[in-house]
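Table S2 (text version). Query chain:
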Amino acid sequence: MQGRKAVSMLNGILWDKNITIKKQKRIYNSFVKSIITYSSEVWPLKEKAERTLNATEVDFWRRSAGKFRKDKIPNETIRRQMKLKDDIVDDIRTQQLIWYGHVQRMEKHRIPKKILNWNPQGRRKRGRPRKSWRDGIDREVLYRYLEVDGWGDREKWRLGIGRRGKTL
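Corresponding structure-token output:
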């Protein structure tokens, strides 16, 4: 994955004791996070991908904290030490909800909306259906106690997913 490559390229900078946590967060948000989450709005997030994303993120923060894996410090301790609020999977899910609301508010003739609401005809393969992007969105809407059709009110939707609305 490209995120691991980015973290390894920053190794010398991350182990530097002169760089503050604030600057490390800026490096993470501007460089590493943007590489890891590129086009993540449309990924169907599965458990393996979530584990990989979290491992890459914690690898960055562990190096930033100057800790080795052999020290066996739990990930949550590293997160507290680096004063982190959310993990990368939560950020991706938030971006997916933003994208979902944006597409749902589009007019019916727009291609992204047609694709999102498309239901293929015919029989499906045997076995359990694959988890789709839409299944993840539905699960996240329930998890965050949002209304299923709440995307119509943009300000309320933004507040529900954790984004601030417009301020005067």
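Notes on Table S2: The chain has nine helices and no strands. The radius of gyration is 19 Å.
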